[in-house]
């Protein structure tokens, strides 16, 4: 193997337990600092080179009881993608009534839509907007 990692220490099977633990710990720290961090930095630079810089904003929004929409404000400019995750027990009612979706994406907002009116307590979503 051309790129095989050589760790700074070799564990001793017959050594005291505390030495084995210390050796394992130092090997793990070496891996994180010398190998893992370098690989993550390389991956992030490759992503930046391919897609430019991206910006993400996230939050939470609730469609109030009796309503079918809520407008969510953000400050990112024109979004490329909006992701929603329902976060409360009422989402089961929404799924049975036609689901949920996003419309009206603009430079400053988007609209969360429900297929049925939200029940008492509303339907809460975590949201994330990404632009590049």
Q: List how many beta strands DSSP finds.
A: 6
Q: CATH class of the largest domain, anyone?
A: Mainly Beta
User: Over the alpha carbons, how many angstroms does the gyration radius reach?
Assistant: 24 Å
Order of helices and strands: HEEEHEEE
The best one-word shape is elongated
Helix content: 25-40%
Structural class: alpha+beta
Structure in a nutshell:
The chain contains 2 helices and 6 strands. It is of the alpha+beta class. The chain folds into 2 domains: 44 residues; 77 residues, Sandwich (Immunoglobulin-like), CATH 2.60.40.
List the helices and strands and how they pair.
Layout lengths: L16 H35 L3 E9 L5 E5 L7 E6 L4 H6 L3 E4 L5 E6 L8 E9 L1
Antiparallel strand pairs: 1-6, 2-5, 3-6, 4-5
Provide an overview of this structure.
This protein has 132 residues and is of the alpha+beta class. The chain has 2 helices and 6 strands. It is 31% helix and 30% strand. The relative contact order is 0.19. The model has no long low-confidence stretch (mean pLDDT 79).
């Amino acid at each position: 193997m051309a790129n095989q990692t050589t760790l700074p220490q070799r564990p001793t099977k017959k050594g005291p337990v505390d030495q084995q633990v210390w050796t394992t710990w130092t090997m793990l720290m070496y891996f994180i600092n010398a190998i893992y961090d370098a690989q993550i930095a390389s991956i992030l630079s490759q992503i930046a080179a391919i897609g430019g810089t991206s910006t993400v904003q996230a939050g939470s929004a609730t469609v109030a009881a009796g309503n079918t929409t809520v407008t969510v404000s953000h400050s990112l400019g024109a979004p490329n993608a909006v992701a929603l995750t329902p976060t409360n027990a009422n989402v089961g009612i929404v799924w049975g009534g036609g689901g949920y979706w996003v419309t009206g994406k603009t430079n400053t907002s988007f609209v969360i839509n429900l297929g049925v009116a939200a029940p008492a307590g509303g339907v809460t979503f975590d949201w994330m907007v990404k632009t590049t």
